[in-house]
Amino acid sequence: MRIVLITGISGSGKSVALHVLEDAGYFCVDNLPPALLRSLVETRLKEGDETLAVATDARSADSLAGLGPDIVLLKEQGHDVKLFFLTATTESLITRFSETRRSHPLSHRLLPNQNPTDRLTLTECIHKEREMLSVVEGLGHVIDTSNLSANKLRAWIRDLIDTEQASLTLLFESFAFKFGVPLDADLVFDVRMLPNPHYDTRLRPLTGRDAPVIEFLADLPAVNDLLGDIRNFVEKWLPSFKRDNRSYLTVAIGCTGGQHRSVYIVEQLAKHFSANENVVIRHRQLS
């Protein structure tokens, strides 16, 4: 059975991700206590299901510690198990809760030694939830949704579940430093020292996927040197990440605006590695 587990911080897009999986034909269960995961898998197997998606969060904090051993056991039984941990900056989460006028799940829950009259503020709820979920954050692939629209998150989730079963999926992501480094990046490379096509009025409205920008950057020795250095670094250390039993490795390439240089480098790296690796491309600042 192919099993996808969705967890993460409230307001980071878990419902959006679960809906994508439901549309893809997965049998979906929301807010399942992790202690019931193995029995659910057994039940769905008896029903003949081949795919299962489960969302869980801090409301089941008491049983989250057992999720890691359960994942190991399910994998030993031959199941393909993936876990996506969705997160976002505190500022982004506060904005989302304010816009939707929804309350945080922990605001209705009394924590140990908490006075019933002392309700947590939204910021305190978010910080407390991060602490409670830290036990599972390292179990899977982290997705930073801080600057993502719902449509872009849907596209990213579709890309991840559409990838073939492989020992490791290599994700190349472009981003703009002015909007912050992606929280889900495993390796970060800064390409802001390269000549910027933004200062050419002919190239400014284009992206690193357009032929004029590609020609401009491909003719620069510094660009080719840096591209080669990044490519060689990833090639050298990729086997070590595979031996570490990683399911995903995110290589983030950043420039000032996330439109030209980082996009070009990501596209070239993806083209090189896709011959032998399972590759996914993300451009955080491109619509």
Would you write up a description of this structure?
40% of the residues lie in helices and 18% in strands. The chain is an alpha/beta fold and 287 residues long. The strands form 2 sheets. The protein has a 5-stranded parallel beta sheet with strand order 2-3-1-4-5, sandwiched between helices. Strand 2 (27-29), helix 2 and strand 3 form a beta-alpha-beta unit. Helix 8 crosses helix 9 (261-273). It is globular. The model has no long low-confidence stretch (mean pLDDT 90).
Fold topology:
Layout: E1 2-8, H1 14-23, E2 27-29, H2 37-46, E3 51-55, H3 67-76, E4 80-87, H4 90-100, H5 122-137, E5 141-144, H6 150-162, E6 169-176, E7 187-190, H7 211-218, H8 221-243, E8 248-255, H9 261-273, E9 278-283
Parallel strand pairs: 1-3, 1-4, 2-3, 4-5, 6-8, 6-9, 7-8
Helix pairs in contact: 1-6, 8-9
Largest sheet: 5 strands, parallel
Structural class: alpha/beta
Regarding quaternary structure, what we see is single chain
User: What's the pLDDT, averaged over the residues?
Assistant: 90
Features:
287 residues; four-stranded parallel sheet; globular; ATP-binding; RapZ-like_N; RapZ-like; GTP-binding; nucleotide-binding
